[in-house]
């Protein structure tokens, strides 16, 4: 393979399919990010009828010579599956697909608009690995948080885009709260609940459930401010630090989503032990993380996350089914049940009873 | 659609598949870009045998605690199809796939390494459409070039990354030079040939063909410097400006690749007329551009390019088969023959005889 003689008198038989596909992927992200910036999805939603590109262009205050470009952008979004195109004698009109209506409009409670912004930023694996320490800033947060909340707090406020992104991700896992029947759990704590997307969904799906959003004090302050700004119903909050010795609230179920994967096995074991202390008899832990296939062959999203976890925490990783089984049973939990969300998503669901 | 009532007591039935797929795409680009930065593909090629992640890590001078991250990155590249994984009793080893060997190594004449860097940059469609004029800088180049070569020359040297990117793209079309039998053409001019990838391929595929690389004077200077730096065989160059009144060299075939799509129909028509003047009787024009499906429904790459052309030139666009037919027959060429490169690529091929 490596010593292949390349015959330059003929075009290569193998074309750069992966490379072109991957390098063009950035442009797809740009299309949906910019469509959000131009409020295309919001305007189509507000209009309540198919709208042509000139009208969208006029509303977005783009120069009239760009109305044609607006039509081109809408055609691209149609191809991607975010708009539907209707052609009649007056030309092309567009409307949101259900996916765009749910996830790309500002007013939707499931809005992922902020994710499309957050997704555009490069990260530097090479620099990180070479230890120059100028990789993704989030890397320092989680090292610091274990030792020094103050440092975390300082960077947190400078980078609250990070939290908006986490919130956008958590919205993509809400359907997984139905993967297991959670109705037996009366008091539920979402550890690292951020601005409360998971807690709000639980309250909707399980009326009467006592739901507590637990996070770092600075995150709780931020979440409460978001609540006031966005006129949301109030949640129960507990400001606590999982790495301190303070007691956590007792609960029947602890949920940890996009959390365990930030830590190496030693730190994860200590977190699981500590959480277990505060789960009532008969209670359980629900882990929301993507589960890696054995041999690290997929799913792709899990491979990508695993690399990102290395970058963002300096020690995190995604785990296989076997690894979750091991770390849970080693730390006082029963054999876990897995719900693998095949074909989609940032998360699978892992439920394990306290032993 | 737009007035859909969202039932918040249930998780949405439609999941954000497109949005998550598209927003994660940036990470795939980062993986292959960073693998290039860490010289993974080069080292596997040089080793001539499967290599494990620790060895790759050591060679790249990453900190030893990152060898595990290196393995994770290699697993991700395996999933993407750029590496092959061999597992034996000593663990995982990796080697380049044929695609990686051809296109991701520095020494390959088909190397696309520079494209993976160029592909990482955001562009701002929304700002461009709103006319703030701070969109992609390339936009000003092609406006300027028609009026003022000096302005073009100034920006050109500041942004020669642009030319490296164009060169990477042109390497992906070399196989299309075999789409039609070009052996009857004795003298061939590649108009806008840049650093000469297409010309070099033509010389290899058609020994004896007289090949001329024609571009702006500043580009020819740059190309000649590249030739010296990289110890390449010398090409025939002509420095000329297609927008001036200077004569162009007579030829049997003019090739224009990633060129026509930068201009609106009026400018394109004038370019075609001017080129036609210098094609000998019996000669032809070979256009290398992606052909848009009718109704602008695809292919995706063509939709993405069309938007980028709007941004980069302020007036460019990709054209349908019908539009190419029209503009060529209106400007003194015979009914064009199309070679549509289904399933792949930045380019299709369109050959039209001079009438």
UniProtKB/TrEMBL annotation, chains A, B:
Q: Which residues form the active site?
A: 261
Query: Does the UniProt entry include the keyword S-adenosyl-L-methionine?
Result: yes
Return the InterPro entries for the record.
Answer: COMT-like, COMT_C, COMT_dimerisation, SAM-dependent_MTases_sf, WH-like_DNA-bd_sf, WH_DNA-bd_sf
CDD domains referenced in this protein's UniProt entry, alphabetically: AdoMet_MTases
Q: Domain O-methyltransferase C-terminal spans what residues?
A: 165-333
Q: Which UniProt keywords apply?
A: Methyltransferase, S-adenosyl-L-methionine, Transferase
For this chain, one GO molecular function annotation is: protein dimerization activity
Q: Which PROSITE patterns would you find in this protein's record?
A: SAM_OMT_II
List residues of the O-methyltransferase dimerisation domain.
Answer: 28-105
The catalytic activity of this protein is classed by the Enzyme Commission as 2.1.1.4
Q: Write down the top EC class of this protein.
A: transferase
GO biological process terms, alphabetically, are: methylation
> Is the Transferase keyword given for this protein?
yes
Function, in words: Catalyzes the transfer of a methyl group onto N-acetylserotonin, producing melatonin (N-acetyl-5-methoxytryptamine).
Which protein, by its recorded name, is this? Acetylserotonin O-methyltransferase
Originating organism: Capitella teleta (Polychaete worm)
């Amino acid at each position: 393979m490596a010593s292949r003689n390349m015959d330059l008198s003929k075009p290569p038989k193998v074309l750069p399919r992966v490379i072109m596909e991957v390098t063009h992927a950035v442009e797809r992200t740009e299309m949906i990010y910019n469509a959000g910036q131009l409020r295309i999805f919001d305007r189509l939603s507000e209009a309540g009828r198919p709208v042509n590109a000139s009208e969208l262009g006029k509303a977005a205050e783009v120069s009239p010579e760009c109305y044609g470009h607006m039509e081109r952008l809408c055609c691209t979004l149609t191809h991607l599956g975010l708009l539907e195109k209707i052609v009649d004698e007056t030309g092309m009109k567009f409307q949101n697909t259900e996916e765009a209506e749910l996830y790309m409009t500002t007013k939707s409670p499931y809005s992922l608009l902020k994710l499309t912004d957050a997704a555009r930023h490069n990260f530097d694996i090479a620099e990180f690995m070479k230890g120059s320490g100028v990789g993704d800033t989030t890397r320092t947060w989680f090292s610091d948080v274990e030792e020094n909340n103050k440092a975390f707090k300082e960077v947190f406020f400078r980078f609250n885009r990070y939290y908006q992104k986490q919130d956008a991700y958590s919205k993509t896992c809400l359907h997984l709260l139905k993967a297991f029947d959670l109705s037996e759990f009366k008091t539920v704590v979402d550890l690292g609940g951020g601005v409360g997307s998971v807690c709000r969904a639980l309250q909707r799906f399980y009326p009467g459930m006592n739901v507590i959003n637990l996070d770092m004090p600075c995150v709780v302050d931020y979440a409460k401010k978001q609540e006031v700004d966005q006129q949301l119903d109030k949640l129960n909050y507990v400001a606590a630090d999982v790495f301190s010795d303070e007691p956590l609230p007792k609960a029947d179920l602890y949920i940890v989503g996009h959390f365990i994967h930030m830590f190496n096995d030693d730190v994860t074991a200590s977190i699981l032990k500590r959480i277990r202390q505060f789960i009532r008899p008969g209670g359980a832990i629900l882990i929301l993380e993507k589960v890696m296939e054995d041999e690290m062959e997929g799913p792709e999203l899990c491979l990508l996350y695993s690399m990102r976890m290395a970058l963002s925490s300096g020690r995190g990783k995604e785990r296989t089914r076997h690894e979750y089984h091991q770390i849970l049973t080693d730390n006082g939990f029963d054999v876990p049940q897995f719900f693998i969300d095949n074909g989609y998503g940032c998360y699978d669901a892992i439920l394990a009873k306290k032993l």
